[in-house]
Amino acid sequence: MAVNAKKIAVYILVVFVLYLIITDPETAADYVQIGFEGISDAAKAVGDFMTWLANGGK
After folding, report:
1. Which pLDDT does position 13 carry in this prediction?
2. What 8-state DSSP symbol labels residue 55?
3. Confidence tier at 1 by pLDDT (50, 70, 90)
4. Of 19, 21, 38, 58, which residue has the fewest beta carbons closer than 10 angstroms?
5. How many whole angstroms separate alpha carbon 47 and alpha carbon 36?
């Protein structure tokens, strides 16, 4: 039963994303840009932490 609920949730999400892209592509592009900026910031934070760790935590 949980697998079916997961499939339905993914289907609804895909339909929503397609609807958003078709009806308002500028807003969809903004969401994608926000997502990539978040991923970039997270990767930079991990890199900074690893550098800090490699320098002995100083």
Report:
1. 92
2. T
3. low
4. 58
5. 16
